[in-house]
Write a structure and sequence with these properties.
By secondary structure, this protein is α/β, with parallel strands linked by helices. The chain contains 15 helices and 29 strands. The chain is globular.
């Protein structure tokens, strides 16, 4: 797109990936690329372009549209997403922004010179508060943009697919196009984006299209380096590798000279691969919740002991997770299995959990612990998550607390032990998500750097790695309470310890 749109000069001729993104009419479109590639700016432009291309209302000739712009937290929404939007559509030209929640930019252009008027309402939403999630999923929208989609659960995106296409009403002609657009930096290869973009590729009438921009840098083999002074010729040595700016990188014309050379300074290899090269990779960010965890020492091939109970920790919510572990007679903990889901209700999760127990741990005594938040009664059916599990034959109890520091310590203490020369905490090699969570995927987010010190949030960052980490915490926290007595083992079925029927936490 390189022609003016309602007075805006939008030139993406040097960004062929963005041009293909604009050309697609897919119901869901994802744009992934390195930092500096212009993907967020492109999404802002796409919203306005779709508003211009909306057919006028038969009632008054106005082109009506309403979009939600979604980010994971309010600070990121205000400092990055809103800032990018206003770079394209500044207030002094397109009208003031209402900053009281929800932040709204209502752009109204009257009919002029035979052109129809435009009424574009853009609502900015952050999802670090459950109340805001509920508000978002009640809106009547034309479309939605999820900024930095890797930081949000797929359930939010799925929820948005039910809210778009509801505005304008049929009386105003209905939406000319409806759908959800996403942008993101790369993520791990076990993320839902990777699964959908690289493997499943949803098709049909309401297909999902994914677009991947070229990396900002290329790795340079040693044999291709000049013999003398490669740095003086623009090559960059960082993270143990040599790099050069990718001549096919998009948006270079809008970046400062030497942008990527500057960007790589002080960065580790994983960071460079993700943010500069644009590759799928795991990047440890912020301060790990469990710096005590060492994957090289605490990862092993483990087998369950049929003579010991299996302890199970549960985390509920949009992405329920379960962690299965055993406490050995010498006090060591072995994490044996994980069950991590996305966009799954409690009914399906309970069925899956029961199936996992029956197939992997038959005839084992099982002790199940979960997030105390699961004791809250459903407003419609007036039952708790624990009540619902009981209907599936899964007897679970809440832990004494869901305070994250207590859960953190429940895992950190055995990590710090050596028992007979072996770590007091081991994770099976196949528990990929547990390992990534403990290895830094679950972390405290960095909020400031200055005066030689880094500052981090007081509470951990909720992301795709947090749920399985919380489940592991509940597993060990609950299992340390000596309140269970063994029940007879039923042939061919998992059994559960009987919980004493009094308030053990008083």
């Amino acid at each position: 797109m390189n022609k003016p749109v309602a007075g805006l000069k939008l030139n993406f001729s040097s960004s062929p990936t963005v041009a293909r993104f604009f050309k697609s009419d897919a119901f869901v479109r994802g744009l992934m690329g390195p930092v500096g590639s212009g993907k967020s700016y492109a999404c802002c432009a796409e919203i306005f372009r779709r508003a211009v291309e909306q057919k006028p209302s038969p009632r008054d000739g106005i082109k009506y549209s309403r979009w939600a712009i979604v980010r994971n937290t309010h600070p990121m929404l205000r400092t990055t997403t809103l800032k990018t939007w206003l770079e394209l559509l500044p207030e002094h030209t397109w009208g003031p922004v209402k900053y009281s929640p929800p932040i709204t930019h209502h752009i109204k252009l009257p009919p002029r010179d035979g052109a129809a008027g435009i009424d574009l309402e853009v609502i900015f939403m952050a999802l670090d508060d459950p109340k805001d999630v509920r508000k978002l999923l009640s809106l009547e929208l034309t479309g939605a943009w999820v900024n930095e989609a890797r930081e949000l659960p797929k359930a939010v995106i799925d929820g948005l697919t039910h809210r778009v296409g509801r505005y304008p009403t049929k009386a105003d002609g209905g939406p000319t196009w409806r759908g959800v657009i996403l942008d993101t930096n790369p993520m791990d290869d076990d993320h839902y984006w990777y699964r959908l973009a690289e493997k499943e590729k949803p098709g049909g009438r309401f297909r999902w299209d994914f677009f991947r921009q070229p990396g900002g840098v290329l790795e340079v083999p040693l044999e291709e380096l000049p013999d003398e002074m490669p740095e003086a010729k623009g090559y960059i040595h960082q993270g143990g590798r040599w790099w050069m700016t990718n001549p096919k990188a998009e948006n270079l014309g809008n970046l400062p000279v030497g942008y990527y050379e500057q960007l790589l300074g002080g960065k580790n290899l994983d960071w460079i691969k993700c943010y500069a090269q644009g590759q799928y990779t795991f990047v440890q960010e912020g301060k790990p919740l469990w710096p005590e965890y060492n994957d090289n020492l605490m990862c092993a091939d483990l087998l369950p002991d049929p003579g010991l109970p299996v302890h199970i920790g549960l985390d509920f919510g949009l992405t329920p997770a379960a962690v299965f572990a055993q406490k050995l007679k010498d006090g060591r903990w072995h994490v044996l299995h994980e069950l991590v889901t996305f966009d799954m209700g409690l009914e399906r999760f309970c069925s899956m959990l029961k199936s996992e127990l029956e197939s992997r741990f038959p005839r084992y005594e099982t002790l199940i612990w979960g997030d105390p938040a699961g004791m809250q009664r459903d407003q419609i059916f007036e039952t708790t998550a624990f009540d619902h599990m009981k209907t599936h034959g899964l007897l679970a109890r809440p832990t004494a607390t869901n305070a994250f520091r207590t859960r953190r310590e429940a895992l950190a203490i055995p990590m710090g032990r050596l028992i007979d020369g072996k770590p007091g905490f081991l994770v099976d090699r196949k528990c990929i998500r547990v390992r990534k969570s403990l290895g830094g995927g679950y972390h405290f987010k960095r909020v400031a750097v200055g005066a030689g010190h880094e500052k981090f949030r007081d509470t951990p960052n909720k992301n795709e790695h947090s749920h399985v980490g919380d489940a592991a915490g509940y597993c060990l926290l609950g299992s340390e309470h000596k309140i269970m007595t063994k029940s007879p083992v039923a042939r061919g079925r998992p059994t559960q310890a009987k919980v004493l029927d009094f308030d053990v936490f008083s």
